Recover the amino acids of this structure.
């Protein structure tokens, strides 16, 4: 594997790691671990922990999908492996 391929793979894995950490923190952290602390805050009449467990995590996941697509496009262009 040449340096360009290794750098591309490293950038891709770095992005995936960041996205998966966000996914874990939002789904497991906000929905389960931090739920008691978040329930002291109300959003739209519902406790924030409940909101994250049922709706907020979905919005965050969708935002992660769009962020991933944009950043992968940038990485692909940077390493000249993009599709036109």
């Amino acid at each position: 594997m040449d340096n360009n391929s290794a750098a591309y793979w490293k950038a891709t894995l770095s992005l995936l790691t960041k996205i998966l950490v966000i996914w874990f923190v939002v789904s497991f952290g906000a929905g389960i671990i931090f739920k008691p602390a978040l329930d002291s805050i109300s959003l739209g009449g519902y406790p924030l922990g409940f909101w994250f467990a049922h709706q907020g995590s979905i919005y965050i996941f969708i935002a992660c999908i769009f962020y991933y697509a944009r950043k992968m496009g940038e990485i692909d262009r940077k390493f000249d492996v993009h599709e036109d």
The helical segments are 3-33, 35-38, 48-78. The longest strand covers residues 42-43. The first helix runs from residue 3 to 33.
